[in-house]
Amino acid sequence: MRNRLLNSACISAIAITGLWSAPALAQDSNNGGINEIIVTAQRKEETLQDAAIAIDAVGGGDLTARGITQADNLTKAVPAISITNGGGSNTSIFIRGVGNITTSSYNDPAVTPSYDGVVLGRAAGAFGAAFYDLARVEVLKGPQGILYGRNATGGAVNIIPNRPVLGETSGGFTVSFGNYDAVNADGHVNIAIGDSSALRLAATRQVHDGYNRDGSDDLDRSGLRAQFQLEPTDTLSIKVGGDYTKVSGVGAGPNYIGTFIPGATFTFVPSGLNSSEGLNTDAANAFRQTSLGAPGFGFLAPINQQQMTDATYWGVNAEITLDTGIGKLTVLPAYRHTDAESYFYGPAFNTAYTNEQDKQFSLETRLAGNVGMLDYVVGAFYFDETVKNTGEYNQEFVLPIQHYTHNTKSYAGFGQLTAHVTDTFRLVGGLRYTHDKKSIDGVINNFITFCGGIPPVTPPASFAAGCAVPGALPHYPNFTTTADTVSWLTSNGYIASGSSIVSGNQVFPLLSGAGVILKTDFPVQDSGSFSKLTWKAGVEVDATPDSLLYATVESGYRAGGFQLSEGNPNYNPETITAYTIGSKNRFLNNKVQLNIEGFLWKYKDQQINYFTVSPGGVLVNTINNAGRADIKGFDVDLTVKPMHLTTLNAKVQYLDSKYKSFSRLTAPPRNNINCPSSLTGDTLTDGTPIISFDCSGKPLLYSPKWTLNLGAEQIVPLGDTYELVASVNTAWRDSSYGAFEYLDFEKIPAHWTTDANLTLRLADGGLSIGAFVRNIENKRRIASPQSSPIGFAIATYTAPRTYGLRLSADF
């Protein structure tokens, strides 16, 4: 077996491309060849080229140099991944089309995030907290059914901070200033405490003004991390860490693309607004007020509150390793806590509010060693998460208020064996048994304004636009309890004073005589368990000392769950089986690196999230299962150093994703699905016909057919003291869909995005100053489109052109 393993002290010095001159020194020691990067994705230290798995890794220096200070920019370096932020605490991750649009915290991520070895239940906590003083980020592509704490169908994103270094007192900082009043500063200090311990402190401050005219798409983040490393003996190591992050500001903000009318032709009317308008400007609100809302049938009102976010993420964790006579024992206890409050516009609501508290405890224990020809990893995992959420989603004539407590307990046992059949041939096999227990206790209260008389659960077809005077019916302010809402309605003269609240459905006549307000109750108390045995089989062959061939088959699973969705309180697990064949190669004395991977994924019962109509005719956001899909394609990753100080790289991904079976049932007005349809013959309780839409043959979301990343770096020596480093990176992403309705405006157009850097630095390290520009094209691209349940086409966009200066130093 090729053995390029390096100790952990070298990790930060051998990132692929760094801001400091340390990578250049690593090149010298490697005969001017391509640098190595160390990964721990298989629970051991090995070079990226020795890891016989589908993985991309980005070193900490490269993250800084390329301005990847938050997760949604990872696609600049990893073609397979897409990460979007939809407002509030909603962060969605997709790898090769496998993922889920996150609008609630009871749905597990399909792509599992982890921070410092700790698997996280929610993506927002990981990506909001961690992107500074990093050793690297690892992106594992495909199911992780064996070695990772919670099963993942799409992959895993491992965020790994720099560790304390024994025997070294050092530090460093990077600060940049740019347009939109951007300031990005982070620093670290490593303090040796005797010969056997060290303390590492790191901090960050990141701010910029909003990219949208209403102040949204801004950034206001502060973070602090402390780690203490103790190695009292040669066989025992203890690392204890803690981190705290505060995220404030306005937050992510969508823009109006236009309005649409469901029906046979899906009539679309462009808004005519700029992609940087936001939803809360005079122009945006004027456009909003031209839209008629149902079922109250009044014109919509201007946005009633500026959006904001106020979230804190903190956690403590430890890593204890002990070399025993039979292998290395690793114990990882961790606790994480999130408090997040936000007002946000979401899918053009007026306005949505959430207040959430997440508590997570996890414990992982594993033993790794070898016996004869066998390397082994065995372990156990425990995960306990409680989410408490209050949410209010003001749709003006419909006001859902929800409260819930959701709990997940997960238990797993796992093991993987690697048999060294010969010095160059290995067989790999693994199993993991996972048992998930989930429960939910919550309620949805809807306040629905109707005109024309006392309605059933939904208004009959005879209710028509114009039966109420525009603006005469309530545009709900932001309340989070039924008592608050009823009190406001009585004090403002909409319903009779002294109106009491009773359990169950309740009708409040409007004093104007225009209609009524219906209050509905939908409690959910449910629990259950899900279990699955997942497996892996693989073969590895060292064709030459610098060429690795591998093939794997691996299964993955994501537990089902329970939800606040009227008529659909639960959903089933999803599963995936991935077939991968790959080759990793170095040629010409480490001057050329060529990695090739082919894959076929069989995906079943994908958990998808969308708006639909309940059997009682109430608009609901629901999670359901999509049927079967095939995902196939290939990756080619080429790095060339034609000269000692020149590096060229190219990454190409071809992706063919297709649903083999995917049908959805819904009814007007949520029949805005651009797929062949037919009547089922069934109806809702009010007689509305149910329609079946067959989306078989459609591609999966965020699965562009072609993705291309190109990069070049040139180092120019300026005498013996200085050197100039110039780099340019560009990425092409083919068109892809971003929402499950497959409407035209939900298709993200193909686009290029190009960044460039120019840095002057000391040749022997320690100081650098540079300039950067990102998104040279200055085109804001759709990141996350959505058809709003109140008739708007909206989208969040990528950042415009940004530029600035950066100063870095280490000591």
UniProtKB/TrEMBL annotation:
InterPro entries: Beta-barrel_TonB, Beta-barrel_TonB_sf, Plug_dom, TonB-dep_rcpt-like. Residues 48-156 form the TonB-dependent receptor plug domain. Residues 1-26 form the signal peptide. Residues 263-776 form the TonB-dependent receptor-like beta-barrel domain. The keyword Transmembrane applies. It is found in: Cell outer membrane. The keyword Signal applies. GO terms for cellular component: cell outer membrane. It comes from the Bacteria. Keywords: Cell outer membrane, Ion transport, Iron, Iron transport, Membrane, Signal, TonB box, Transmembrane, Transmembrane beta strand, Transport. One of its GO terms (biological process) is iron ion transport. It is a multi-pass membrane protein. PANTHER family: FERRICHROME IRON RECEPTOR-RELATED, TONB-DEPENDENT OUTER MEMBRANE RECEPTOR. Belongs to the TonB-dependent receptor family. This is Iron complex outermembrane recepter protein.
